[in-house]
Amino acid sequence: MPQHSPDPTPPAAGAHVPLLRNYVGGQWIETETRFDDINPVDGSVVAQVCEAGQAVVDHAVAAAKTAMAGAWGRTTAEARAQALRRIADGIERRFDAFVAAEIADTGKDAAHARTIDIPRAIANFRAFADQVATAHGDCFESTTPDGLGALNYTINKPLGVVGIISPWNLPLLLLTWKVAPALACGNAVIAKPSEETPYSATLLAEVIDEIGLPPGTFNLVHGFGPNSAGGFLSTHDGVDAITFTGASATGTAIMRAAAQTVKPISFELGGKNASLIFADADFEEAVTGTLRSAFSNCGQVCLCTERVYVERPIFEKFVQALRQRTEQIRIGSPYEQGVTMGPLISAEHRAKVLSYFDLAVAEGARVVTGGNVPTFGDERDRGYFVAPTIWTGLSDNARCMQEEIFGPVCHITPFDTEEDAVKAANGTRYGLATALWTSNLKRAHRLAPRMETGIVWVNTWFLRDLRTPFGGVKLSGVGREGGRHSLAFYSEPTNICIKL
Ligand code: NAD
């Protein structure tokens, strides 16, 4: 069994670069085509990754089907719940290795990986173990013309082979958010993590290998999108359902591919989220909450706030308070003490974010703070850092106010009335999350249902109970996952009607 656990400190120059392999049918599969896993802090190579081509994906589908036809397809919900708990324990046992892998791949600040990414991955397995162990079906007694009646009951069967395609921003958290319920419902899984962040997914395959799920129950294929593992998976006839987290444009491509075989899909896509801050809000809480919601994970969370609307009487005070707090953010390597913001994920993504920095100025934005690339005078200058940035002065129809940027940047706009605020918040093609900041309970209840988003937070942000529905409307997604909503997606109900 390979042990590729990275050390929690940065790899020394010239250190051995591990090879991350595909995991198919309980075997580690090497391929000749390889790509580099890059550390965005300094552009160094973290690992070499074996890309899965069509043959490896075909192999994974065949292995998954074999698992479904064999022992895994006959497990009880309780046995699957126990397997999930053992996976959670396995991640916990190698907690530091998972944290190090996540940091090496993303450059994210260590506290984020330690307190959010890896604990949430563990929680995903435990939460869906509990969900499936306590799930119940429908049962109805029906009347019949002869008066004897009939009994209807519903059983939930697995969908079969589920393809899971995930992004790089919260790599293990988002992958396991789908792996856990898919396995809980008795499916076999083929997971395709982002090409930018293959490391923690490989460690997950190692954990699953250690606990000994039947071969083919969990398969891992590495690679890119079109003409690579992602494309081959989403177009494969043998894959029964696709669940995807990523950009809205990719969702469109996958939806088109999945339509060929009418596969069920579940999509968690992009966002252009708004916060509405009313003058009656707890000011300090609203500033701290907005700082987090705009800049957590270097702004690379689908739920991050990129549009902040502040009631006019407190607008100037709010802009200055957020600017001050933003300028205190310490940017740098996750291995340095006190750093709370790392780099963006890649050179390509930084080029995209910087193009929005230029566009904002061209569109008439005032740069309150940031808008530049910080320099360090050492190897971090080879990394993909940008300064956390605040703009004011853009109109709601500016491209920077309509398109997802996915970096550490927000725009602040004043508003005068509740109606104006609601209209502005709902004025994009996205619909993932809104945060309302107010101490007026009636206002919170009045406005929350009017938000055209799948999630509304009041006086908080990113607070998640895994039993609640998660997902977006409009360009932000299709379907809901979380709690029983996940069980509904990952299983196929069959009604059995017995004439009495
Ligand atoms: P992406 O869409 O570029 O890639 C996501 C995954 O899809 C990767 O594994 C990639 O290899 C794969 N892929 C790309 N093209 C494909 C294709 N044609 N067929 C099959 N697979 C394909 O997204 P990203 O850049 O990795 O992630 C950032 C995006 O994800 C942002 O838009 C963000 O808002 C979104 N996101 C949404 C949520 C949510 O829950 N709504 C959570 C996190 C991220």
Description:
The protein has 500 residues and is α/β, with parallel strands linked by helices. It folds into two domains: 19-269 and 476-499, Aldehyde Dehydrogenase, Chain A, domain 1 (3-Layer(aba) Sandwich), CATH 3.40.605.10; 273-465, Aldehyde Dehydrogenase, Chain A, domain 2. It has 15 helices and 23 strands. Strands 15-16-17-14-13-19-20 form a seven-stranded mixed beta sheet. The longest helix has 24 residues, at 110-133. The radius of gyration is 24 Å and the shape is globular. Mean pLDDT is 96; it is low at 1-8. Nicotinamide-adenine-dinucleotide is lined by residues 165-169, 174, 192, 194-195, 224-226, 230-231, 234, 245-247, 250, 253-254, 268-271, 302, 404, 406, 432, 472, 476-477. The site of nicotinamide-adenine-dinucleotide has 32 residues, from α7 and α8.
